[in-house]
């Protein structure tokens, strides 16, 4: 028996969803019964949603496609009709699967208006998209494209059943044109396309409606540890350091060495240090060019600041002679570093403790002859985790030979071939482990699209990793937590100050509030 995982954590491809669904049907659950159950839950959700907006049932326009997504839409239309909602149905294609046709015939017999022209949907207050559901790969063309283009220009609220029509279920690509949803109700299990950057601007608010899929059927298709997972509040929280025992001291709460900064990029070192502060790490040591020491001493007074000899351009020339890299539980290298001193990378890679590389740490790695474009597995070099946190540009430099077109698959290939833990940054950060598993952060904000926010993440992540390493706990779950809390910090700061108010320093000051509330 495998350990039952919260279904909210699982992300499936269209083929996997279909295989899971087939198991339910093969076991005897009638297709029509499942549609009735699922659509009943959608109708309830919509009713609750609309009742919060207006006391009078608004007029719903329902787009009905030929498959079971259209069948769901018809059951929703019927149930809401019975509840007193004015409904109009528009069906752009004549063909229909038998169950969908039966629901259409019944809706017609009830007297629910069937529109001949989509333009008549303009009298509705809400438009429901039941055109196409999971499994979409074909482009939206001709009349359907015109319909969706028209719908997207209307002022009504738009709700999509399962996945917006026109979105590729796995890659999230817009297949020509897509229904621009304000709300998407994903059915049963999260679909991959809902987490791909390409789809984010089409989905609106996304909710999952459960319909009691047995874990045994999920595990039979996905295996006992599903490869694609979503970070959830529970998983992020459960990985955080345990409440501190009374009898402890700073060296039992993680020692982190952060090697960062240059005269040109001094702020990156302080932002990463402030991110590390938010992790609660027991002892933070900063190695910076000596000219930055006074600044860092002032900004992060609790840190031990090692003044490093510097190059004429103000980069770290070498670490201080008495700096013993072996004493740290984790090392982070990169923010604001410049690429002048490759020996910093060589030295830190040799140390057998978790190493977080960001920014110029990654650029140094990309240029290292042993790295070979990420194709030579690092496992023979080192046994402790190597954690890479590239943005897409850095990722391309690190893995120039990878051809995967989508971030999730690209990160997965990169981690498998290199043996590193790859944190590919973007609107939805993807964390890929060398064993092929993937975690995706589902909640974030474009407020983070701003210089310096990645530096804060590096510090926070490295601090949590240092605590975990010191306490001999697994590292990867803390990497997930760091990505989650970084985004939650931004969301909290955004609530208080708006999207444009989330500068990296503000983010670093908000992080301790969200992380501390959990430990
Ligand atoms: N999974 C579950 O557990 C449950 C699933 N349920 C529901 O079923 C939905 C999936 O239903 P589904 O498989 O019938 O697919 P759906 O998209 O409705 O129709 C496919 C039809 O559309 C056509 N077509 C597609 N693209 C097109 C295009 N661009 N342009 C033109 N035509 C296009 C396609 O044509 P074909 O490609 O075959 O020629 C085929 O005829 C799912 O999302 C959920 O709502 C729930 O009821 C119960 C629980
Ligand atoms: N549109 C977006 N939505 C959510 N998060 C974003 C978005 N754009 C960037 N981010 C996040 O902001 C951070 C930017 O990091 P990075 O590019 O390294 O910036 P910097 O080097 O300036 O600190 C990453 O954590 C990334 O995931
Ligand atoms: K849909």
Automatic annotation (TrEMBL):
<keyword id="KW-0630">Potassium</keyword>
<keyword id="KW-0521">NADP</keyword>
<dbReference type="InterPro" id="IPR029056">
    <property type="entry name" value="Ribokinase-like"/>
</dbReference>
<comment type="function">
    <text>Bifunctional enzyme that catalyzes the epimerization of the S- and R-forms of NAD(P)HX and the dehydration of the S-form of NAD(P)HX at the expense of ADP, which is converted to AMP. This allows the repair of both epimers of NAD(P)HX, a damaged form of NAD(P)H that is a result of enzymatic or heat-dependent hydration.</text>
</comment>
<comment type="similarity">
    <text>In the N-terminal section; belongs to the NnrE/AIBP family.</text>
</comment>
<keyword id="KW-0479">Metal-binding</keyword>
<dbReference type="InterPro" id="IPR017953">
    <property type="entry name" value="Carbohydrate_kinase_pred_CS"/>
</dbReference>
<feature type="binding site">
    <location>
        <position position="165"/>
    </location>
    <ligand>
        <name>K(+)</name>
    </ligand>
</feature>
<feature type="binding site">
    <location>
        <position position="336"/>
    </location>
    <ligand>
        <name>(6S)-NADPHX</name>
    </ligand>
</feature>
<feature type="binding site">
    <location>
        <begin position="133"/>
        <end position="139"/>
    </location>
    <ligand>
        <name>(6S)-NADPHX</name>
    </ligand>
</feature>
<protein>
    <recommendedName>
        <fullName>Bifunctional NAD(P)H-hydrate repair enzyme</fullName>
        <ecNumber>4.2.1.136</ecNumber>
        <ecNumber>5.1.99.6</ecNumber>
    </recommendedName>
</protein>
<dbReference type="Pfam" id="PF03853">
    <property type="entry name" value="YjeF_N"/>
</dbReference>
<comment type="similarity">
    <text>Belongs to the NnrD/CARKD family.</text>
</comment>
<feature type="domain" description="YjeF N-terminal">
    <location>
        <begin position="17"/>
        <end position="219"/>
    </location>
</feature>
<feature type="binding site">
    <location>
        <position position="69"/>
    </location>
    <ligand>
        <name>K(+)</name>
    </ligand>
</feature>
<feature type="domain" description="YjeF C-terminal">
    <location>
        <begin position="233"/>
        <end position="518"/>
    </location>
</feature>
<feature type="binding site">
    <location>
        <position position="455"/>
    </location>
    <ligand>
        <name>(6S)-NADPHX</name>
    </ligand>
</feature>
<keyword id="KW-0511">Multifunctional enzyme</keyword>
<feature type="binding site">
    <location>
        <position position="268"/>
    </location>
    <ligand>
        <name>(6S)-NADPHX</name>
    </ligand>
</feature>
<keyword id="KW-0067">ATP-binding</keyword>
<feature type="binding site">
    <location>
        <position position="162"/>
    </location>
    <ligand>
        <name>(6S)-NADPHX</name>
    </ligand>
</feature>
<dbReference type="InterPro" id="IPR004443">
    <property type="entry name" value="YjeF_N_dom"/>
</dbReference>
<feature type="binding site">
    <location>
        <position position="454"/>
    </location>
    <ligand>
        <name>AMP</name>
    </ligand>
</feature>
<keyword id="KW-0547">Nucleotide-binding</keyword>
<dbReference type="Pfam" id="PF01256">
    <property type="entry name" value="Carb_kinase"/>
</dbReference>
<keyword id="KW-0520">NAD</keyword>
<dbReference type="InterPro" id="IPR030677">
    <property type="entry name" value="Nnr"/>
</dbReference>
<keyword id="KW-0413">Isomerase</keyword>
<comment type="subunit">
    <text>Homotetramer.</text>
</comment>
<keyword id="KW-0456">Lyase</keyword>
<dbReference type="InterPro" id="IPR036652">
    <property type="entry name" value="YjeF_N_dom_sf"/>
</dbReference>
<feature type="binding site">
    <location>
        <position position="129"/>
    </location>
    <ligand>
        <name>K(+)</name>
    </ligand>
</feature>
<dbReference type="InterPro" id="IPR000631">
    <property type="entry name" value="CARKD"/>
</dbReference>
<comment type="function">
    <text>Catalyzes the dehydration of the S-form of NAD(P)HX at the expense of ADP, which is converted to AMP. Together with NAD(P)HX epimerase, which catalyzes the epimerization of the S- and R-forms, the enzyme allows the repair of both epimers of NAD(P)HX, a damaged form of NAD(P)H that is a result of enzymatic or heat-dependent hydration.</text>
</comment>
<feature type="binding site">
    <location>
        <position position="391"/>
    </location>
    <ligand>
        <name>(6S)-NADPHX</name>
    </ligand>
</feature>
<feature type="binding site">
    <location>
        <begin position="68"/>
        <end position="72"/>
    </location>
    <ligand>
        <name>(6S)-NADPHX</name>
    </ligand>
</feature>
């Amino acid at each position: 028996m495998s350990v039952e995982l919260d279904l909210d954590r699982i992300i499936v491809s269209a083929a996997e969803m279909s295989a899971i669904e087939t198991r339910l049907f093969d076991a005897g659950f009638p297709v029509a019964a499942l549609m009735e159950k699922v659509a009943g839950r959608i109708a309830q959700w919509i009713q609750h949603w609309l009742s919060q907006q207006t006391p009078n049932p608004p007029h719903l326009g329902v787009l009905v496609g030929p498959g079971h997504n259209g069948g769901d839409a018809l059951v929703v239309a019927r149930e809401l009709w019975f509840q007193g909602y004015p409904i109009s149905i528009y069906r752009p294609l004549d063909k229909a699967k038998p169950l969908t046709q039966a629901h259409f015939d019944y809706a017609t017999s009830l007297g629910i208006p069937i529109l001949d022209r989509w333009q008549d949907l303009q009298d509705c207050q809400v438009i429901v998209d039941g055109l196409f559901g999971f499994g979409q790969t074909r482009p939206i063309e001709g009349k359907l494209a015109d319909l969706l283009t028209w719908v997207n220009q209307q002022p009504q609220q738009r709700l999509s059943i399962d996945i917006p029509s026109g979105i590729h279920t796995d890659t999230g690509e817009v297949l020509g044109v897509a229904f621009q949803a304000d709300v998407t109700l994903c059915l049963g299990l999260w679909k991959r396309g809902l987490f791909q950057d390409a789809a984010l601007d089409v989905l609106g608010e996304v909710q999952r409606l459960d319909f009691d899929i047995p874990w045994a059927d999920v595990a039979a298709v996905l295996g006992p540890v599903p490869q694609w997972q979503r970070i959830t509040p529970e998983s992020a929280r459960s990985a955080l350091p345990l409440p501190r025992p009374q009898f402890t001291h700073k060296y039992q709460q993680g020692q982190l060495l952060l090697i960062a900064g240059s005269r040109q990029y001094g702020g990156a070192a302080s932002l990463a240090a402030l991110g590390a502060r938010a992790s609660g790490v027991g002892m933070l040591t900063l190695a910076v060019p000596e000219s930055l020491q006074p600044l860092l001493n002032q900004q992060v007074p609790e840190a031990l600041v090692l003044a490093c000899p510097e190059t004429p351009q103000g980069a770290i020339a070498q670490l201080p002679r008495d700096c013993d890299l072996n004493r740290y539980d984790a090392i982070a290298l990169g923010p604001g570093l410049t690429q002048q001193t490759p020996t910093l990378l060589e030295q830190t890679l040799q140390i057998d403790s978790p190493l977080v590389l960001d920014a110029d740490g990654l650029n140094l790695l990309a240029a290292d002859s042993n790295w070979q474009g990420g194709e030579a597995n690092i496992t023979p070099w080192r046994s402790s985790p190597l954690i890479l946190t590239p943005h897409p540009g850095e990722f391309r430099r690190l893995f120039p030979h990878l051809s995967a077109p989508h971030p999730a698959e690209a990160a997965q290939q990169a981690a498998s071939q290199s043996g590193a833990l790859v944190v590919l940054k973007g609107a939805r950060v993807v964390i890929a482990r060398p064993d092929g598993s993937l975690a995706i952060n589902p909640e974030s904000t474009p407020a983070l699209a701003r210089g310096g926010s990645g530096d804060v993440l590096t510090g926070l992540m490295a601090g949590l990793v240092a605590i975990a390493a010191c306490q001999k706990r697994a590292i990867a779950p803390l990497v997930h937590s760091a990505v989650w809390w970084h985004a939650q910090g931004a969301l909290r700061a955004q609530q208080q100050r708006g999207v444009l108010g989330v500068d990296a320093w503000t983010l670093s000051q908000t992080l301790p509030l969200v992380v501390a509330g959990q430990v």
